[in-house]
Structure formats: structure tokens, C-alpha cells
Amino acid sequence: MSKISGETGYHNSDYRLPGGFEHCSKLKPVVEAATALDRVKAVVDVLYSPGGCPWDGKQTNESLLKNLLEETYEYIDAVETHDRDNMREELGDVLLQSVFQARVCESDAEDPFDIDEVADRLVNKLITRHPHVFAADDVADSSDADGNGGEAASQSESPEAVLALWEKMKQQEKHRKSVLEGISRAQGALPRAAKVVSRISKSPNADELFAAFVDSSSASTQQDVEQTQAANQSESNGGNSVERGKADAYADEIFAIVREARTDGIDIEAALRNRLRDIEEKVVQIESEINNG
């Protein structure tokens, strides 16, 4: 019996190897794979294993990070431009990076794990983080008896309350002492700033924590004054202190914009990407008019 993926009408049994590759014995695991995702795992395993692709076989978790980041941004671009066909391709590339990273981890000598362990941990996390959905059957039955219905019980929380619960459970599970723990410093400064503001906003101590912005700005201003005075007394510093003061002032303005955008429900990075896309299109149009004029 064929397996249908979602409501797309795509059948798992519809898969056929590309023309000309039907008689390659290395592809036997791919042909025999039970699901589409198993086929991805199988072909990545062939590529990474001895006798596979020399380039793939040399990759490490670190060397693949650039690809992961690039493919993620390419998928974002496809989504924001509503390019459904490109979304199919780019989402596949993101999937490849996840499976490839896990395959590399599987070969680690000290702490190996595979994509199945990753998937099972993900499933458990999704279940435990959604107690409002996956309540015990007797709880759901009790809701039915009260006339509320199991569905109503599962939707009793607002999206905002659910998100707050998720963040609270996440902090407890990871034993985080600060709301800022776990924010990646590898990401760009703007999305990182947005994440910092978002985390603080969800904290019950948000007002007190946001005082750090004001205190930091005030301290920076006082420091700038002292550094500027020192700069005037000594030309040997090349004006670095003054430049730092200007840089901090710009950074404070950006932080203020990020906070204001979040209050208005705006994803500041997405807004900037969309505006940049508009500007880039206009630049290309102007260049075309100049060249054809």
C-alpha cells in the first residue's frame, strides 16, 4: 500500500531513480529504503562513506556550517519571494545539511549519535513542551464529560500563553540561570539583538532587565566623555575613543529601534530584508534604464 505524504498527493511509491542510474549497485540501499527520508539518509551515507565522494568524505561539522547557513538564507529568500518551486529545492538543501551533519556526528569516535537519536529527542521535546495538546486520555475524557470537548481543552491556552510556557519549560529543562543563556553569538548582530530583546520581553522581570539598556547607555556616555577628554590631551590615540563613542551611540539607536519594532509586532530583520530586496530591484531597474538610455 502506497504512503501519501500529507495532502499533496505525492506517493512514496512514486519514486524512481534518475535515468541512467538504474544499474548502480551502490544505489541499492536507496531503492530499498522504506520512506523518502530513509532515501535521503541512504544516499548521504553512500556519499560520506569510504568509496563515496572524496569531497563529502572529508567534511566535518565545522566545515559544513557555511553551507548550512547559506542554504537556510536561500530558503528564507524563496519563502519571502513566494517561489514555491524554489522552496521545494531549498528546503531539500536544508534537509540535506541536517542529515549530513548527523551522519558526520555518527562517525565521531568519542560521542557518536545519528539522525534517529536526533529525531527521537525532537519528538520527545515536542510532546513534553505541549502538555496542553498531549494531555492524558482521562483528562480529555473529563473535559468531554464537562461538555467542553477534548479539542477545546487542547486549545484552551492562547498562542501567547503557550509560547510563554514553552520558554519557561525550556529554561527549566536547560537549567538556565539567565534568560540570555543559549542565544547564539555566531549569528549576526541584528538578529542577535532582536533575540535578546525578545528573551527579556518574555521575562517576568522585563522592566528591571531592560534597565540594563539605559544603564549601559548612560555608562557609555560617561565613558565617552572621559575618553574624549583623554583624546584631546593626547593625539597619539588617533581618535579611537571618539570613534568608539560614535559607534556606541549608533548601536544604542539600533537597540531602541529593535525594541520599538518588537512592541509593534514587527520582525525587524525580515523587514530589513524585504526593504533591501525592494531597493535592490530598484537599483537594477535604474541601471537598466541608464544602460539603455
TrEMBL record:
NTP pyrophosphohydrolase MazG-like domain residues: 59-134
Species, as recorded: Bifidobacterium breve
Highest taxon above the source species: Bacteria
Biological-process GO terms, alphabetical: dATP catabolic process; dGTP catabolic process; dTTP catabolic process; dUTP catabolic process; TTP catabolic process; UTP catabolic process
InterPro entries assigned: MazG-like_dom, NTP-PPase_MazG-like_N, NTP_PyrPHydrolase_MazG
Spans annotated as Disordered: 138-159, 220-245
Protein name per Swiss-Prot or TrEMBL: MazG family protein
GO MF annotation, one: nucleoside triphosphate diphosphatase activity
Polar residues bias locations: 220-240
Gene3D superfamilies reported for this sequence: MazG-like
Pfam families to which the protein is assigned, alphabetical: MazG (PF03819)
